[in-house]
Design a protein that fits this description.
- With about 70 residues, this protein is of the alpha+beta class.
- About 40% of the residues lie in helices and about 20% in strands.
- The longest helix is centred in the last third of the chain and has 14 residues.
- The chain is globular and about 35 Å long.
- The structure holds zinc ion.
- The site of zinc ion has 8 residues, from helix 1.
């Protein structure tokens, strides 16, 4: 079990192809407004030039702010 970094709900990370997808206890994909907003805001910054490492760093920075 881990927690959604955006809303702190308990979720499980499932591998789906090349990306990890957060899944709730009942098996549905987790979505929350906080997560949607965060994804929207980092897509706005650099739509194509961010590497996965840079995105990870950016997400860590968001976590530290909380
Ligand atoms: Zn969430």
């Amino acid at each position: 079990m881990s927690k959604c970094r955006y809303c702190n709900k308990e979720i499980t990370w499932m591998k789906e192809g090349r990306k990890n997808v957060p899944v709730e206890g009942d098996g549905t994909v987790h979505t929350c407004q906080e997560r949607k907003d965060a994804i929207k805001s980092f897509k706005k910054i650099e739509p194509t030039t961010l590497s996965p490492e840079e995105i990870a760093k950016y997400e860590q920075a968001i976590n530290k702010k909380k």
